[in-house]
Amino acid sequence: MNKATSLDQAGIVLETRNLRRVVDKDKVIVNDISLAVRKGETLAIVGPSGSGKSSFLRLLNRLDEPTSGTVLLNGVDYTTIPPRTLRRQVGMVMQSAYLFPGTVAENISFGPRSRGEQVSSERIEELLEHVQLAGYQQRDISGLSGGEAQRVSLARTLVNDPQVLLLDEPTSALDETTRAGVEELINTIMHSQGLTNIIVTHDMAQATRMADRIAVIQAAQLKRIGTVEEVLNEPIA
């Protein structure tokens, strides 16, 4: 029993313990959520609009600060990790790409450059090939489609070699055809690199296609977590 527990714990990359966030003095937007995600696993966070899904995700790399509780990254309390270091290890792709004016290459190299590191042209091209944008290094951001911009955003996150990838509705701002292509690309990257992934989506069908497990958040609380089959086949109380 103890050995099994030890092995289970060893596989956990990211864990939340009693995570809670209160705003405007008494509005609880994340309420006492505890869960764990294993190396290479994809966990989908689903629930109605306004339930606290994205608020929960933003706590995982300290874009917002919890009122109480904490997050462990490889067993280390994340409050002991400098925020900039944490956000390299726990990368995030937003619903909208939020790219900076300039070229694709400048956007991808922005993070490393801001901490005094150089990214070679070869590394940038390798990342662009990975997100199916080969030859786009000198393209201006202003000329990209929505799907292309989201792919650049993904490459900009991957350049930091994250352990955990957070995705907040990464395809919801795209048209149906583009959405399918970007979803397939994200799926391929997540599995080929062995990343630990947490994706927020309002689309249960997307969650079933992409995730190993699903967590249901309603009214700021974790109501259910389990395999896709468990969550789909058992009603939420």
Q: Kindly, what is the distance between the CA atoms of the first and last residues, rounded to a whole number of angstroms? A: 31 Å
Lateral strand order in the biggest sheet: 6-7-8-3-9-10
Q: Strand-residue fraction?
A: 25-35%
Class by helix and strand content? Answer: alpha/beta
Strand and helix order: HEEEHEEHEHHHHEHEHEEH
The CATH topology of the domain at 11-99 and 161-233 is: Rossmann fold
Shape: globular
Mean pLDDT: 91
Low-pLDDT runs: 1-7
The CATH architecture designation of the domain at 11-99 and 161-233 is: 3-Layer(aba) Sandwich
Largest sheet descriptor: 6 strands, mixed
Helix content range: 25-40%
| Fourth-level CATH superfamily of the domain at 11-99 and 161-233 | P-loop containing nucleotide triphosphate hydrolases
The count of β-strands is 10
3D architecture notes:
By secondary structure, the chain is of the alpha/beta class. The protein has a domain of 162 residues: P-loop containing nucleotide triphosphate hydrolases (Rossmann fold, 3-Layer(aba) Sandwich), CATH 3.40.50. 36% of the residues lie in helices and 27% in strands. A 6-stranded mixed sheet has the order 6-7-8-3-9-10, sandwiched between helices. A 4-stranded antiparallel sheet has the order 2-1-4-5. The radius of gyration is 18 Å and the shape is globular. It starts with a helix and ends with a helix.
